Amino acid sequence: MFSDFNKMALHFFKRVGISQSPTFASPTAHIRTFALSQTYFGRSLDPIIKRQQMDRYNERRRNRRRTDPEYAAKELKGYRERPPHENWGFRNRELALEAKRMAHMRRKAEDPLYTLRTRIRTTLATHSWMRESLPWKTHVPVLYEDKVEHNCGKCLVSRHGGLKFWYVCT
Question: Among 27, 93, 97, 160, which has the minimal tally of Cβ within 10 Å of its Cβ?
């Protein structure tokens, strides 16, 4: 019933002078003694199944936001009541801002589309002639003087607390 490892461990503990052997050296009646006590019920590792699970979760949240105004208000309040540096898990504002700068620099270096989107948004926000004279097929960029609340067309939620720059459907 003892494996070679268990025999060696028992011999070692007897030589050292420990009369009781530890639990790993004694024979076990249960096969799951060292396994996790609970199974992890997270998302699947298969990308297709994981996407389906995420879509179901998002659909349930969207439906609950539409039908339960208390839930929608509570969720919206959770986004807005904490300052951004606390949302990131930092207590120190300088550390949070530095983390944000580093994330921006890393994303700018790694993702060319991020850089392109940032440059387009900045250019459209600073040059009114581009917003007004260029032909826009489906969405027209609009720059407001003050922040304006906009709801997402898909999930019907505004998480930004208002934006000055927005694309409006034509």
Answer: 27
C-beta of residue 140 within 8 angstroms of C-beta of residue 167: yes
Amino acid identity, position 87: N
pLDDT of 94 higher than 80: no
Give 38-72 pLDDT, tens digit per residue. 455 677 888 898 899 999 999 999 999 899 988 88
**1-21 confidence digits (pLDDT tens):** 456 666 666 666 666 566 554
The Cα–Cα gap between 10 and 135 comes to 82
Both structure tokens of 76: 């919206």
Buried b (16+ CB within 10 A) or exposed e, 85-101: beeeebeeeeebeeeee
- What are the residue ranges spanned by the domains of the chain? 82-126, 128-170
Predicted TM-score of the model (pTM): 0.41
Dist. CA 103–CA 113, nearest whole Å: 15
Half-sphere exposure of 95 (CA within 13 A, CB side): 7
Three-state secondary-structure class, residue 127: coil
- Cα-only R_g, the chain: 28
